[in-house]
Specification:
Low-confidence stretches: 246-261
Largest sheet: 6 strands, mixed
Strand content: 15-25%
Protein name: Phosphonate ABC transporter ATP-binding protein
Structural class: alpha/beta
CATH class of the largest domain: Alpha Beta
Number of domains: 2
CATH topology of the largest domain: Rossmann fold
GO molecular function, one term: ATP binding
Keywords: ATP-binding, Cell membrane, Membrane, Nucleotide-binding, Translocase, Transport
Helix content: 25-40%
InterPro entries: AAA+_ATPase, ABC_transporter-like_ATP-bd, ABC_transporter-like_CS, ABC_transpr_PhnC, MetN_ABC_transporter-like, P-loop_NTPase
Bound molecules: adenosine-5'-triphosphate
Number of helices: 9
Pfam families: ABC_tran (PF00005)
Length: about 260
């Protein structure tokens, strides 16, 4: 299990300050949801955590080691499903091993039996074992995103980063995908960061929440601390009343509510 420290993280793009002196620590195994309006810096935070972007100032440490480049134990799931439509769910899942098996072996599907089992286990984890031979392009958006989760799991990560994984999905599929993500994260003891727009889904599945506004961290707390006032503060003038669903238990049971969309 992997512990993350973000220390004085600033990321500038020219004159734009996308992240402004952001610091926090996340113990191993936490499921963190990053909230904030469009442009608040969520993707930049996740991409910096993944090593795809380097900080302008500050540092990210993973188990004490400075993050200086992408590493195989940190897997990223993208907004767009980023899977290959012409390949089956199984082949897409198997391709998650590219970071460890090497590009050529992965393309030629020369991975060892263990890797192939891992790809099937990951599909099973996201409820798609029966669809393993189905071409990704013929699957629903929610199923494709679950293939994306499976592929990330085959990478054998310790840290899972999901940038708006349900942005393009209808509410039912979004809940289903989030359920699988949370279940996979718990099952494999992953430290997980997930950026989301939908506050009600965030509250249902999140454990800890980090709120960004204009690149600054303006909230960091657990479920009970994420009050309507905090949400109003994060989202400003937009109507947040409908986003705030009370009485959803403690979120621990959220993974029991996985739908089959
Ligand atoms: N590659 C880039 N070049 C220039 N500016 C960028 C780049 N990436 C992000 N930005 C800027 O940094 C700020 C934060 O963007 P970011 O994409 O992190 O926000 P976000 O909260 O993820 O938004 P969204 O919810 O719309 O995805 C924005 O002002 C954005 O325009």
């Amino acid at each position: 299990m992997t512990y993350i420290e973000v220390d004085g993280l600033t990321k500038r793009f020219g004159d734009t300050v996308a992240l402004d002196d952001v610091s926090f620590e996340v113990p191993a195994g936490e499921f963190v949801i990053v909230l904030g309006v469009s442009g608040s810096g969520k993707s930049t935070l996740l991409r910096t955590l993944s090593g795809l972007l380097s900080p302008t100032e500050g540092e990210i440490r993973i188990d004490g080691d400075p993050m200086i480049e992408p590493r195989p134990d940190v897997a990223m799931i993208f907004q767009q499903h980023n899977i290959i439509g012409d390949m089956t769910a199984y082949s897409n899942s198997l391709s998650g091993g590219v970071h460890r098996a090497g590009f050529l072996s992965s393309v030629l599907q020369l991975q060892d039996t263990e890797e192939k089992h891992r790809a099937l286990d990951a599909l099973d984890m996201v409820g798609l074992l029966d669809e393993a031979e189905q071409k990704a392009r013929s699957m629903s958006g929610g199923q494709q995103q679950r293939v994306g989760i499976a592929r990330a799991l085959v990478q054998r990560p310790e840290v899972l980063l999901a940038d708006e994984p349900v942005a393009s999905l209808d509410p039912g599929s979004a809940q289903s995908v989030m359920g699988y993500l949370r279940r996979a994260s718990e099952d494999r003891d992953l430290t997980t960061f997930c950026s989301l727009h939908q506050v009600n889904i965030a509250r249902k599945f999140g454990h800890r929440f980090i709120g960004l506004r204009d690149g600054e961290k303006v909230f960091d707390g657990y479920r009970d601390d994420l009050t309507i006032d905090i949400i109003d503060d994060l989202y400003g003038d937009i109507d947040t009343e409908g986003m705030f669903v009370r009485d959803e238990g403690d979120g621990e049971g959220a993974t029991d509510e996985v739908a089959t969309t």
